[in-house]
């Protein structure tokens, strides 16, 4: 019976020793001392032998684990923060002194326009002169002149007479008349008008444009001496000329013309008045 108990105790000791050996702590190889004489120096051109792809893939996880363990065991090296660089104050340029010269003053409107207001009878002239006072024009900006002109009066209309100059030789005038009739121009020889005696009358028109059209037809046919005589009542008219008008004055003058004489318009004029 004693030997059985001794056998059980021996078995328990063996089992305990075996368990103790299975749970032994791993040896920390970093903490072991290494003899310097056992170290070997590798040549400069040494390179590790290539490993098979399967072995390299198998050893990759182990290398990562070893690297993480090394990083955890080694103390972190903290670099001191660089001292901030000294910032030099920016050089401030001295402010420029304001120019003592004042900016040039631009006129409200430059005077460049010249016009004339022609054909004013005595009644119209009085009305126009009364309206011009509001424009405050300088005496050098306006001038006037009178001339006799042909105008329609009560019961009399202006007519435009086309004629061919007189010929001293009646036979020459008659031949020219027949020649013009042969080309489609109606005419007759004037026999009883002093200064126009012997001329060829080609037509009397109520509109100036129609008279000019006939003159152009005669020129195209080779008769370039035809003239126009304006017939009507002779009246005295006045022409007002304006120069160096500003834009504002020109607008005021146009407004005045449209109000007082809508049938007599302003016309461009030479500025040398």
Provide a descriptive summary of the structure in words:
It is a single chain. The chain is an alpha+beta fold and 273 residues long. Among the domains are: 113-153 and 234-268, Alpha-Beta Plaits (2-Layer Sandwich); 159-231, Alpha-Beta Plaits (2-Layer Sandwich), CATH 3.30.70. It has helices at 2-22, 53-73, 122-132, 170-182, 208-220, 247-260; strands at 113-120, 142-151, 159-164, 188-189, 200-205, 227-231, 233-245, 267-268. Strands 2-7-1-8 form a four-stranded antiparallel β-sheet. Strands 4-5-3-6 form a four-stranded antiparallel β-sheet, with helices on one face. Helix 3 packs antiparallel against helix 6 (247-260). The N and C termini lie far apart (163 Å).
């Amino acid at each position: 019976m004693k030997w059985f108990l001794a056998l059980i105790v021996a078995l328990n000791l063996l089992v305990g020793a075996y368990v103790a050996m299975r749970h032994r702590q791993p040896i920390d190889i970093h903490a072991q001392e290494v003899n310097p004489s056992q170290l070997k120096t590798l040549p400069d051109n040494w390179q590790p032998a290539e490993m098979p792809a399967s072995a390299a893939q198998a050893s990759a996880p182990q290398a990562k684990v070893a690297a993480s363990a090394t990083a955890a065991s080694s103390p972190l090296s903290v670099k001191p923060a660089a001292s901030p660089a000294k910032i030099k104050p920016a050089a401030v340029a001295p402010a420029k002194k304001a120019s003592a010269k004042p900016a040039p003053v631009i006129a409200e409107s430059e005077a460049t326009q010249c016009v004339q207001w022609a054909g004013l009878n005595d009644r119209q002239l009085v009305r126009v002169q009364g309206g011009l006072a509001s424009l405050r024009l300088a005496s050098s900006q306006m001038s006037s002149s009178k001339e006799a002109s042909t105008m329609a009066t009560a019961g009399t209309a202006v007519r435009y007479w086309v004629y061919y100059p007189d010929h001293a030789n009646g036979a020459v005038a008659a031949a020219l008349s027949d020649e013009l009739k042969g080309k489609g121009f109606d005419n007759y020889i004037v026999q009883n008008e002093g200064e126009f005696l012997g001329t060829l009358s080609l037509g009397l028109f109520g509109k100036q444009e129609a008279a000019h059209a006939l003159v152009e037809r005669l020129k195209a046919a080779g008769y370039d001496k035809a003239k126009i005589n304006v017939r009507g009542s002779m009246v005295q008219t006045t022409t007002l000329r304006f120069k160096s008008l500003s834009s504002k004055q020109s607008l005021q003058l146009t407004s005045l013309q449209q109000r007082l004489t809508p049938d007599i318009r302003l016309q461009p004029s030479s500025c040398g008045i």
